[in-house]
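Deviation from plan, reported transparently: nicotinamide-adenine-dinucleotide complex.
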Amino acid sequence: MSCKIGFIGLGIMGKPMSKNLLKAGHSLVVHDIRPEPVEEVVAAGAESGASAKEVAARAEIIVTMLPDGPDVEQAILGPSGVLEGAKTGSIVVDMSSISPIVAQKVGAACAERGVEFLDAPVSGGEPKAIDATLAIMVGGNQEAFDKVLPVLKAMGASVTLTGPVGAGNVTKLANQIIVALNIAAMGEALTLATKAGVSPEVVFNAIKGGLAGSTVLNAKAPMVIARNFKPGFRIRLHHKDLRNALAAASSLNVPLPLTSLVQQELVALLNDWDHSGIVTFTERAAQVEIK
Ligand code: NAD
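Because the crystal trials were delayed, the predicted structure below was used instead.
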């Protein structure tokens, strides 16, 4: 399907993702409330749209990559938003990580206007956004999924239809629980090792090939040991994901005691550091730095 793609939200993730669409030969119209990333993606070959409405009016597939549910609601349902400009039959693909309940609300509003909606959050962070190797988990109907698959494949290495609208974000919440709890466990383990006088680097290298080894450990332990907390993925955004996970779990009567504990650690840390900084909660209590 040869068509124009709209891209709204050019942050840490959206900027490299939109550039990969250009590299794959797609024609793009982009928008962000900040001018700097728009100028950068326009310099790489995109056109710019003055509002989400204008982007939608000029595109057949509209991708959004925004921080949280309220931002997605504003950009799609709000004044000068996507639905004011979208043509009947166009497809909105929200790649932000938001509450599955908000995804279903936005999907229903799109359907009322004859616009298809898919929720398609991603995993892999900035490095995989740059390499176009994200894992993309999609909720929506098969026909819309098939139409946007070539576009999603230009940004990701794996693209999976997980169920109806909302299922993509349920899958992403599962992912975020596992990642947050892994980082917290790594923080406790390496804080203990450091305070006991054993080098955290030696511990990391000794255990990474065993059962405790993981993608999270390989990505985050070297950052922590180098005291590099530049995002990456902001603690503030991971807090949002665990908050959404706890709300969804509560509505389904599912207890998540470990998630709730780590979410409380994030409340104490709310900032724009990379989420590897979750380890500082235990470090501060133990008065030692993993390095
Ligand atoms: P970010 O804060 O770097 O970027 C968000 C962008 O959206 C910013 O450029 C901001 O100016 C723009 N924006 C906000 N409201 C807008 C609006 N109404 N209209 C137009 N633009 C608007 O965030 P990010 O790290 O790129 O994350 C985006 C989403 O992807 C989040 O839901 C996050 O949880 C998810 N995610 C992030 C990572 C990561 O490693 N950073 C990994 C996987 C998923």
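The chain has two domains: 4-165, 170-286. We consider this an acceptable substitute for the interim report.
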